[in-house]
Design a protein that fits this description.
104 residues; elongated; 4 helices; mainly alpha
Amino acid sequence: MSRTDDPQEERVFFKFQSITSTSIPTFQMAFPQVPWMYVYRDPVQVMMSHVKDDPQLKRAICTRSMHGRPPRAIQAIAQRHGRNDSRELKRAEYCASHLAMLTE
């Protein structure tokens, strides 16, 4: 990953999926001298992009963990909104919870 045959190349750029934003402190501890930037996109725009490409949200990134064990943060968000279990959420609600988890 990120290797090159060109000896003049000294820098590398990594783009992580949104779920990785929850691990930023780990990256900072592992690589304290590495400059980085966080690009924030309005969660509503992100969700609308998911819906535009996949109206039923069956393949959307924000619903990938829906069928397995949901992250504790999504479960907590569901409970704050009166649901006992995040598996009760509709796909759009689960997607919104996923995006909320990333911005909390």
